[in-house]
Amino acid sequence: MTITFSNLITQISYEMVDTSWDDAYVGYWLNMAIRDYSKYFPLVKIQTITTLLNDNQYDLASDFMDVIAVEYPTGETPPQYLSRRAFTQPDFWESDYWYDIIEHKDDTDPDELLISKTTLAADDSIDVHYHGHHALIANPASVTGNCTVPVYHHNLLSLYVFWQNALSLANTEQQSPTSSSSLLMAQLAQNARRAENAYHVALQQALYADRGKSRPVQWVDGGDSRSNDDSMARIY
Q: Is 55 inside a domain boundary?
């Protein structure tokens, strides 16, 4: 079931106690919710990289979080996966079957994939299977696109937005009091703490439920020089 961001914002806004916020604010908070959600329930994606002649280093997607598998060459049956090995190891360049990820942790400088094969051909393909962020609203002031977070987890997004809404109300009252009563400030602060707690409780329940789900496993022949050191590689 696909739900548009516009419909999701309408639904969340309807459920909010304070409905004075426009869609741009709700969309901004919704993006914050999706970023936080993606840390715990990332989206499985594939980035296809077209190789350049003798080029061993390639930029990874801007939403790259961590690697699942690197398939090279692509289109093989069964698929051929490279094994990860630190590029600082002396034998990294002595085999065609290694890869490594160079992490920059910088939005302006994407992480990079390093392939050990010394003579890459032009126009080959590398498929990087990775965990990435769920889709975000490109422009909260002009909402378009579909939400990729599963419907059964939309309550987490709503609770996160409610928390940010309550926190904003508390901060606004502290900065520009509308009354001389400290009781109102204390009540708003308490509401924000309750909203934060409700979100984290629901998140922990979702994580607990997810741990009970099975995961497909790809078994790798331990005798294959391209296999991992472990006897199997787990593919999510």
A: yes
Whether residue 229 is contained in a domain is answered as: no
AA identity, residue 127: D
152-176 confidence digits (pLDDT tens): 999 999 999 999 999 998 998 888 8
Bond into 78 cis (ω within 30): yes
Helix H segments across the chain?
A: 5-15, 23-40, 154-175, 182-211
Kindly state whether residues 148 and 37 are assigned to the same domain: yes
Handedness of CA 15, 16, 18, 19 (dihedral sign): negative
Co-location of 7 and 74 in the same domain: no
CA distance 221 to 228: 9
**pTM, 2 dp:** 0.81
How many CA atoms lie less than 13 Å away from 188 in the CB half-sphere?
Answer: 21
74-95 tens-digit pLDDT: 989 999 999 999 999 988 988 8
User: DSSP for 136-188?
Assistant: --S-TTS--SEE-S-GGGHHHHHHHHHHHHHHHHHHHHHHS-SSS-HHHHHHH
Q: Which helix (H) or strand (E) holds 134?
A: none
- Measured between alpha carbons, how far is 126 from 73 in angstroms, rounded to an integer? 6
